Write a sequence for this structure.
């Protein structure tokens, strides 16, 4: 080492021992490569603890200041510059997504009366034919030919998409969305007091962060251990509706939504004292990819509740013994319901979105937004030409 030191100093260089080797270079360049210095990065949007995990493969010398949300780095200037470049790309505003959510409880017998076929809605979502005639699928579509849609509306507010299909090739011809029909049916059920909107909420969450809705009752019950000195514990059971939604924005502007609903009810009470609730739960899980502002409809979470009802004749039911025997009756009312979940994810527009939409989607959006205005301008041009025609007979 002494010999190396003398040789290096004689030519104006410097050296550092790296493992079992000598690194010889210009003093300034050597300091950039192996010199250790400290640097503090103030984070704006990301959590310091999360970034530390991401930077572990780049440098082990990263410390976290959680209260101040800062990163403290002890490394060479070259390594610090690399870390700063990575942090600048990660520490950006997250995309926000608004989730318009409706939870609707509908009596199943009314569904059958009004002819709502949820199996069709689940298989082909919100697609129906555009004309007003009896239509059977097939003939160039992806829907099996055996599927018949019946008589379908031919006028607005259903969007006419056949021209969009011909020009852009993005959509199948002669088909349009059915969400308006769903809203109309829901309004009919509500007016008939056969549908109840349990929740109509708007949640805003960050991209990749889960949002949840809970409509539950907390049922307390007592558990006691046997023996003379037995302990008494109060347990609580959450019963009701739970909905977890995880939206993720894709690079093409579509939104991937993971939905996990759970519906639970008390089936019966068990135990020696009949005080421990036995819970019946129904869950489902699905992942769907939709456009920005497009609705998702999930159904089929059926519930069958039984309630005991007592019928009494006023005044006469209070007669001792005879009132309970002759003027009082008991019955069991069974109510079967279906929980319908409607979710509409919408990207919140701000200064930074981080979304690069595909050319096909940009062309489609331009066609939809400008189509109506161009049609109105065309009608105005036709009117002006007819008014200015000298041979019009006026």
């Amino acid at each position: 080492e002494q010999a190396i030191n003398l040789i290096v100093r004689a030519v104006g260089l410097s050296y550092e021992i790296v493992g079992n080797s000598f690194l010889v270079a210009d003093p300034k360049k050597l300091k950039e490569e192996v010199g250790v210095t400290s640097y503090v990065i103030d984070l704006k949007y990301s959590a310091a603890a999360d970034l530390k995990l991401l930077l572990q493969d780049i440098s082990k010398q990263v410390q976290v200041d959680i209260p101040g949300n800062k990163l403290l780095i002890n490394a060479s200037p070259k390594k610090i510059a690399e870390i700063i470049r990575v942090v600048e790309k990660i520490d950006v505003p997250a995309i926000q997504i608004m989730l318009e959510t409706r939870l609707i409880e509908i009596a199943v017998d009314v569904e059958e009366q009004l002819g709502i076929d949820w199996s069709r809605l689940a298989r082909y979502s919100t697609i129906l034919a555009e004309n007003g005639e009896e239509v059977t699928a097939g003939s160039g579509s992806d829907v099996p030919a055996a599927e018949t849609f019946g008589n379908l509306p031919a006028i607005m507010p259903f969007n006419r998409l056949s021209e969009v299909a011909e020009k852009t090739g993005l959509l199948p011809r002669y088909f349009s969305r059915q969400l308006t029909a769903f809203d109309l049916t829901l309004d009919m059920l509500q007016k008939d007091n056969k549908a109840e909107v349990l929740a109509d909420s708007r949640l805003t969450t960050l991209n990749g962060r889960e949002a949840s809705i809970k409509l539950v009752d907390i049922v307390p019950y007592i558990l006691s251990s046997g023996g003379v000195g037995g302990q008494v514990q109060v347990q609580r059971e959450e019963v009701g509706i739970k909905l977890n939604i995880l939206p993720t924005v894709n690079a093409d502007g579509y939104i991937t939504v993971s939905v996990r609903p759970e519906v639970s009810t008390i089936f019966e009470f068990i135990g020696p004292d009949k005080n421990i609730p036995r819970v019946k739960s129904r869950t489902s899980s699905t992942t769907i990819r939709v456009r920005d502002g497009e609705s998702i409809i999930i159904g089929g979470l059926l519930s069958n509740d039984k309630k005991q009802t007592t019928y009494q004749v006023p005044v006469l039911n209070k007669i001792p013994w005879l009132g309970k025997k002759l003027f009082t009756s008991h019955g069991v009312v069974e109510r079967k319901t279906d929980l319908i979940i409607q979710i509409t994810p919408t990207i919140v527009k701000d200064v930074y979105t981080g979304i690069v939409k595909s050319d096909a989607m940009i062309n489609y959006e331009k066609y939809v937004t400008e189509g109506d205005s161009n049609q109105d301008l065309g009608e105005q041009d036709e009117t002006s030409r007819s008014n200015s025609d000298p041979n019009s007979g006026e």
